[in-house]
Amino acid sequence: MIPFSVLDLSLITQGATPADAYRNTMDLAQLADALEFRRYWLAEHHSMPGIASAATAILIGQVAGVTKQIRVGSGGIMLPNHSPLIVAEQFGTLETLFPGRIDLGLGRAPGADQRTAMALRRDPHAPDRFPEDVVELLHYFEPADSLPHAVRAIPGCGLRVPVWILGSSLFSAVLAARLGLPYAFASHFAPGQMEEAIALYRHRFEPSDRCASPHVMLTVNMVLADDVAEANVLVTSLYQYFLALRRGRPSTFPPPDAGLCQCSQFMRISHFKISGRIFDHRSCEFSKFQTKSQRAKMSISLITATHVQLIFDTGIFPN
């Protein structure tokens, strides 16, 4: 059986509040834990009307507190928005409270528009320092006796929280390979360079004491429903949401609209930045997907959005 994981944005649905989004997140996390899913990750975004996971580390702690065994982490923390020391202390605290269950995924993007990014970090050159900031952050997780007379993350030093590099370009692939870290590629919204990035990462990977061999995580969109007709309706929520983002008018997560399935112009525009397939789980096509994933020693991650029913964007995670 292919293992499953979840990436959650704590989406605020139309007519709901952040409190509702958090209740949905806790309910889903407990369900994923009970079903023995592998991971539950949360993503950092800011000033987004439809996303409630801005204070990502706090929400990770809440999810870890209501679950028992599932790994909980960030997918990801946008490091240019933060001091590496602060991130090390936050995730050192989480690892201390929930030992062996915390992951730290790091991204270079702001997780917001330019105006919000300036309000967050007030330094337009912060993303340029991302490689150096990652190295500094890793340094804070080293054992205390290897850091004489140095600034220390307390808690944090010696805990060796698992760190992933997240990205949607070749830059992140090269960095993850050079540092010998696992690599997560955001192919659910930026599939264009996926194959090239993975090949580059594997080719240039330098083994480290954190990761002995290349470890790749991919995300691809998938909608789960009782049948294909229902899936085609449910996915219109995601299409509407992405289209609003592209037009610079972010919104709360809208309900499905069956009428949009018949609008060829809407469907063509909406597919522009979203990768994925819709097919019946009983079909030969789905069977081939499962077989290919198993042969590649991959598992599945679900990126979730909640309305009345669950909509899943899924990603493939190797073990």
TrEMBL record:
Family: To bacterial alkanal monooxygenase alpha and beta chains.
Stretches that traverse the bilayer: none
Entry-linked NCBIfam families: oxido_grp_1
Source domain of life: Bacteria
Ranges of residues in domain Luciferase-like: 11-241
Annotated protein name in UniProt: LLM class flavin-dependent oxidoreductase
InterPro entries xrefs: Bact_Lucif_Oxidored, CmoO-like, Luciferase-like_dom, Luciferase-like_sf
A Pfam family reported for this protein in Swiss-Prot or TrEMBL: Bac_luciferase
